[in-house]
Model the fold of this input.
Amino acid sequence: MTETSAYPGEHDGYVVLPNSRLLRIRPLQRSDENLVRELYDHLSPRTRYLRFLSQMPTLPDYMVRMLVYVDDRRQLGLVAEHDSGNGKEKEIVGLASFGAIDDRSVEVALVIRDDWQRQCLGTELAGRLLQAAEARGFHRFVANVSSDNVGIRRILRNLGDVVSTKMSGGVSELVFVRSRTKSSKSYTRSEISRCKSNCRIEVCEMKILAVCGSLQAKSGNLALLNVAAASTPPGVELVRFNGLRDLPHFNPDIEASGVPESVSQWRLAVTGSDAVLIASPEYGFSLPGVLKNGIDWLIGSGELEQKVVAITAAVAGPERGRRGLEALRDTLSAVRATIVGGEPIPKGPGFESQVAALVRALVEAAAAHRE
Done:
């Protein structure tokens, strides 16, 4: 006989998204098979691939059963349910789930219907799932993510700290722990009218990773990054990465025996940031080799994929440094980065104000890019 667990009603509630749309968040049930199929049918081919690493035209029955046959202890799913209120059947527009790997670790997965993406629903649903997992004694989370799944990487940055990454065949295994989480408040039906007027999902503070393309101790580009750090608005943290000098020469064969610690730290630093600011000199009409080497270590593993990146150079005159920045732009195009700026900043009057303007533009672009 199959044991039936009690309905985990503590995870049943409501959330109002920033655009004032109301959704019910509730546990996934075995009776949801058809709703899960309909959710899959409404996903774009790209979203299907990012969640299931396949573009299957329909979701096979065995996969549907794997998703909905939960025991609410070692396997749990949470769905975002929308009621249009026009007599139509309710529909599932988001699904987050976990399955136990061992007594302390779970594998997590998330999918949001395309027309409901970029409304903070992914972060809200994932946050509630991680809370439910921790309430059951699981504190280590594993996500298998396509290298170009930018959305899930943003959500992970909002909810936790990635402690290790492993790349294989274009898929990254991200191991993370929950930290800096926002409280997810559930609403009863009697609270909905009040909730609509004042409930908003909190936005995480922003972290910008600053990278200097020069190894010189008194580099003008290092000085530029110091000015940038002093120009950040409240809620934005600029953290400098100083480990480019420690990276080995890029060689995929090195990873066959394990990812070097310096490479792991570089990848984790980029993964944990909302945006990147690169200040780099021009060497031989191109970008410095140490910076190109660092970017090469990120191309295959995906940490820079579609990242918001501001690029500039501290120069003696306005025509200096342009070829180096153009070469850097070309290199970043390999990861489809969103480029902010791209102009050199001459030293002298107006230097600090131009740096501050670049920081503001980067923050605005990163805010628009995140969920």
Summary: Residues 351-369 form the longest helix (19 residues).
